[in-house]
Amino acid sequence: MHYRISKVKHAAGARESMISHLESMSDKIHAIAGLHSVKLVEISETESIAFSKYDNAQQVIDAEDQFREIMGGMMPFMTGPPEIMNGDVIWQVSK
To answer: What CATH number is given to the structural domain containing 66?
Structure first.
C-alpha cells in the first residue's frame, strides 16, 4: 500500500465548509483509480491531515490532476499551500 499524506493549514472554523466541499466532490474522489480510502483528521482548529490510501505510488502520480482539482476547491479555506508527503507502508498492525 502507498499513502499520500496531505497536511492542510486552514482558517479556524472552516471544518464544515471543507467537509461540504469534499462531499460535493464525492463522485470525482470515487473515480480516482487505485484510491481505496481517504481519512481527514483534524489535529488542531487550524490544521488537518488527510491520509489517502492507494495500491502503489504510480496511482498517486496518475491522480495528480484530479487531486489538484479537488484541492483547488479548498483554496478559499486554506491559509497556505498544503504540505504533501508520499510513502509506502513498511509496517502495520490491525485488530
So the answer is: 3.30.70.100
